[in-house]
Amino acid sequence: MASPAMLSTGFNSPSAFTANPKVWFSIPFLCRIVLIPALLCYFNIQCSTEEVLSTNWTETWPRSWKERRRSSSQGKVLDSGSDIIFGTVVSTVPITVQQEQKTKPATNDSNFGRVRMSVAVKVSRFEDVVMAPPDPILGVSEAFRADTSDMKLNLGVGAYRTEELQPYVLNVVKKAEYLMLERGENKEYLPIEGLDAFNKATAELLFGADNPAIQQGRVATVQSLSGTGSLRLAAAFIQRYFPDAKVLISSPTWGNHKNIFNDARVPWSEYRYYDPRTVGLDFEGMLEDVKAAQDGSFVLLHGCAHNPTGIDPTPEQWSKIADVIEEKNHIPFFDVAYQGFASGSLDEDASSVRTFVDRGLELFVAQSYSKNLGLYSERIGAINVVCSSPDAATRVKSQLKRIARPMYSNPPVHGARIVANVVGDPSLFDEWKQEMELMAGRIKNVRQRVFDNLSDKDKSGKDWSFILTQIGMFSYTGLNNAQSNNMTNKWHVYMTKDGRISLAGLSLAKCEYLAEAIIDSFYNVI
Ligand code: KET
Questions:
Q1: Name one Pfam family in it (predicted).
Q2: Distance between CA 146 and CA 136 in Å, rounded?
Q3: What DSSP line would sit under 69-84, residue for residue?
Q4: What is the DSSP letter of 167?
Q5: Angle 206-210-213 (CA atoms, 0-180°, nearest 5)?
Q6: Mutational pocket test of ligand 1: of 202, 223, 226, 228, the residue with most ligand atoms within 8 Å of the beta carbon
Q7: Where does residue 125 rank: exposed (0-12), middle (13-18), buried (19+ CB within 10 A)?
Q8: pLDDT of residue 39
Q9: pLDDT, tens only, 342-359
Q10: What is the pLDDT of residue 59?
Q11: Collapsing DSSP states into helix, strand and coil, what is residue 132?
Q12: Contacts of residue 79, Cβ cutoff 8 Å, sequence gap at least 6
């Protein structure tokens, strides 16, 4: 197709010659056969139509002449897919010569005197964009896919697999989807805050339907893009309404927490959480750090099944944490990504959050249905803000909607309907609880088997019982970066570099192999 710029040079695409044979045949025979090819060889012309036709060429070119030449000789130019159109080349020679002369500095290059028009250089505007590192968690799955070994195991991402190591779609999810088909639901936009039935169901599941905060209308619930999107929405809210506040994050924590607050430009610092000496909770350290933080900070807490350590505070410890938070006028911010997955009971796993709500504290809770309903790719979750008055809740909700609108406008409906159908239907709800217990039970069995195999095989007498005290999907093995690399490079066991393995991605049959890999990495790699 002829571009407007091409037309302005007086030629239609692809060239004046091919478009008008008369012009071609009007050139004397000798000239056609000998002179034109000779001229072309001499000029060694490579031409990128786009470059040539760019009106702001010199301005838009940030690189020096030398760099251009270098990148041209490195083959970037032709790789970038420039089209060399015979007729256009000839027709645009005068333009390119002018452009070259403008941009080329005086040179004593050995080619000087020979007009070398390497104007096919189509250097991307993205030359300065550097390669991003792979994501520490999702990048592991990419590496796993590329491995051709039969032995490979993906224990990186926290995603539930069956004993056959296949992804699992819950029966209740299939039934809920069937209901949706039967009802012939439409695909209209949802309101910015999401599906009403979902928002009601999700808040009730978290706080308990009879919770006074819900009864009094003090909870602002907004459906969002799973746990991550909900955290991000809240982070944007904090950035706008609490510009001087810091978020305290446990050390260690889920790899994406820091990214989320960094991206929202919310400053954060860490509080002690994990004690490698006891392979348990550094409770005193945690309290000290939360106390030492400036008043009115946000304290990010994992509602249950702390990721990556699998170590949760006891109910008594939760109470003491709440005391300090209250004393310091901090704002608790719960991330609940594993409700039902830690203990197998939805209520038990929500008890930390409920302890804080019962005290009348204002707080944030981000929820996710990726794990407990296996809706990883549906991106279904919510941000809940418990306020001290219904009026505050209404205003907070209006601002969350205001933030969501330019970000993603409104959330997807499919996952929201699944959750609403499952939670809203007593028989599906019961079936879900059974399925969740099954999933949590399978992980517990795998955990036990890994411990048994490690204890059997490790003759050094090392105590591996910490694996049994950890809960949830993961085990924090204590393997360091180099040892984790050995697990992957030698044993084809894919895991995050902080030593975390997802037991949800392991089968009973593979536990022995995993134990051998752990023992080899632990004792033979420093
Ligand atoms: N919070 C925590 C603590 C968490 O582990 C995850 C996911 C999320 C939130 C967000 O999940 P979402 O799918 O956005 O609802 N963790 C697993 C997956 C991931 O990293 O994205 C993981 O740690 O493997």
A1: Aminotran_1_2
A2: 16
A3: HHHHHTTHHHHTT---
A4: B
A5: 70
A6: 228
A7: exposed
A8: 55
A9: 888 999 999 999 999 999
A10: 32
A11: coil
A12: none
DSSP code at position 494: E
- DSSP strand E in 206-294: where? 219-225, 247-251, 268-272, 274-275, 280-281
Q: Write out pLDDT tens, residues 196-253.
A: 999 999 999 999 999 999 999 999 999 999 999 999 999 999 999 999 999 999 999 9
Largest CA distance in the chain: 99
Cis peptide before 21 (omega within 30 of 0): no
Q: What angle do CA 398, 399, 400 make, to 5 degrees?
A: 95
List pLDDT tens digits, range 298-319.
Answer: 999 999 999 999 999 999 999 9
Pairing of strands 493-494, 474-476: unpaired
For 292, the enclosing helix (H) or strand (E) is helix 283-292
Q: What global pTM score does this model have?
A: 0.79
Q: Whose CA is nearest to atom 2 of ligand 1?
A: 337
Residue nearest ligand 1's atom 22 by CA: 158
Q: Give the pair of three-digit tokens for residue 245.
A: 């506040």
Pocket perturbation via mutation, ligand 1, pick of 273, 300, 307, 353 by most ligand atoms within 8 A of CB = 307
Report the interhelical angle of 481-489 vs 511-524 (nearest 10°).
130
What secondary structure, in 3-state letters, does 343-408 show? CCCHHHHCHHHHHHHHCCCCEEEEEECCCCCCCHHHCEEEEEEECCCHHHHHHHHHHHHHHHHHHH
Query: Which atom of ligand 1 is least distant from the CA of 157?
Result: 24
d(CA 490, CA 485): 8
Residues with CB under 6 A from ligand 1: 137, 157-158, 226-228, 254, 256, 302, 307, 335, 337, 368, 370, 376, 381
Other CB atoms within 10 Å distance of the CB of residue 233: 26
More confident residue, 37 or 328: 328
Give the pair of three-digit tokens for residue 445.
């069995």
CB atoms inside a 10 Å sphere around CB 258: 14
Segment (H or E) for 118 = strand 118-119
